[in-house]
Amino acid sequence: MELPADVRVLFDAANYAHLATVLPDGGPHTVPVWAGLEDGKIAFLTSPDSRKVRNLAADPRVAISVTDHDNPYAMGHLRGRVTARLDGPEAWAIIDRLSVKYTGQPYPLRSGRVVYLVGPKHPRPHLRVIRDACRPPAAADGEPMNMNDRALEAEEARLASASLAAGDPTGWFDRLYAAGAAGRVPVPWSRREPHPLLTDWAQRHHLAGAGKRAIVPGCGLGADAEYLAGLGFTTTGFDVSGTAIRLARERHPGSCVEYVCADLLHPPRAWRQAFDLVAEIITVQALPRAVRQRATTNVARLTAPGGTLLVIAAVHGGPGEQPGPPWPLTRAEVDAFAADGLTPAAIETTTMPSEPAERRWRAEFHRAP
Ligand SMILES: C[S@@+](CC[C@H](N)C(=O)[O-])C[C@H]1O[C@@H](n2cnc3c(N)ncnc32)[C@H](O)[C@@H]1O
What we know:
- This protein is α+β, with helices and mostly antiparallel strands.
- 29% of the residues lie in helices and 31% in strands.
- Residues 170, 173, 189, 191, 195, 217-218, 220, 238-241, 244, 263-265, 281-283, 286-287 line the site of S-adenosylmethionine.
């Protein structure tokens, strides 16, 4: 039986699961486990002498819950039963895959572990995503990064420098998303909430999108596109990374946002001056200066007559080039969005409550009706 995509995403990533089994006296027993998917079943490893193995010998029923490492308010849980116990080469191949997922290395032992496979009881395991005010804010800059964030940053630097050295300014994005989707690093740019400078701007402008079209270049996993769709815009989110688009569609099943794989450096002609609102949020700054003017002009060209372009980006601080990506924008680079006939309406620097030390551009441009 195929697990739903949103549950598979949770088990494919390096998220910790909790496994509950039944004690001989009928009581519950639960432990955290490494878990992954093998042929549509959930696999976990254990010592053959463990409490859970003894429990399973008497009663194969289990319950498993898993939370998203990046957002513990996204979680799935299911009930099922163990359908197989594996040892020998088949088990060690699975154990190594799990170990690489969680640690980046094959498992250090070669004995004393077995693998169990679990099949879900119900065709639709329960998945719940809680998006509410109790979600803690993102860590402020300057706070220590955890190991997973460090791994993501290192992978980003490695993939970006190889891609840029080969003269390919965009190829690394999909490689990084693919590494995230495979669980080797956290999924990049996977925030679930719309950008706070977008929501703040939208609220101040009493933004309403009924009968209007919006587009989000470099939409990543779609938080901003979903927000604009929620305001009534007929919304397109596009990204050069096919993996990002797949993850966005999986994250928002049934969404009315049209998620499209497309390149801002070569956008479809039909998009020219077609959108009443263009929300460019930290995408141009992820592109090297060699292609920045082209990307900037192509963003401006998306704006329809009478339409608005909103740009949110990091502020280039101090003299000289900073190592990127990203390459925060200078004032001149923000001014450059006034291309293809757009005029600046408001250009400000501001900060977000979660990152009070980091200055951001928020700039608004209009095209005459
Ligand atoms: C820094 S991330 C920002 C993602 C998202 N806008 C956010 O705020 O979280 C840049 C995004 O732009 C995408 N991207 C980079 N170059 C692009 C291009 N030429 N065309 C379309 N998308 C691009 C990347 O794949 C990535 O999803």
